[in-house]
Amino acid sequence: MKTSLVGNAHLIEGGTAALKSLFALLQKEGIETHANPDIYVREYARFGADDGRALRERAMLRSTSGGRRLFIIATPSMTTEAQNALLKTLEEPPADAMFFFLVSSPQALLPTLRSRMQTLKLAPSENDDLVDAATFLAVAPEKRIDMLKPLLEKDDDDKRDLRPILDFLSALESRLAKFPDGLRTLYSARKYIQDKGALLKPLLEQVALLTPRV
Description:
This protein is α/β, with parallel strands linked by helices. The protein has helices at about 20-30, 50-60, 80-90, 110-115, 135-140, 140-145, 150, 165-175, 180-195, 200-210; strands spanning about 10-15, 40-45, 70-75, 95-105, 120.
């Protein structure tokens, strides 16, 4: 399994939405992604410390084919404990292991963890977001609040899958690079949304009311 990718660990913005683009890159690099026993793919609503330790244990196993093993982790967020658990894995990775972490907002990760990974910029996959970021930013706040309903209509806050919400905030962030006030609102929302017991509706309404119209 040969590849020109540099290093053993790679960081990709986009969460699960970037999986299609990553598989396309791997195919281009000559890596067979279909029915390959040495490619381990997992999606998490939230990657925790136990998940980090389980990944390290899995990475210590031998390859089935005798070639490189790829570990692809897609998640909207990682706990601080999980990131610290991953540091050891990335400092001393098994020689035949290559890691790909697909997260909604790489900037939210610990700098010490980001420094151990190569950041990959991938072409965006086909947009299947529940709320279109460009349209959201172009309309009045009252309309924005109405647009948020698909992100909030299912499950209570404790059981909700945060991936669509964090992907939406990341899409807004990429379009608000020139608006510091809007970015501060997004950073604050992302920070508190991931807290246990966070009230998502008022947090997202703050985003609707405070981000600039562009």
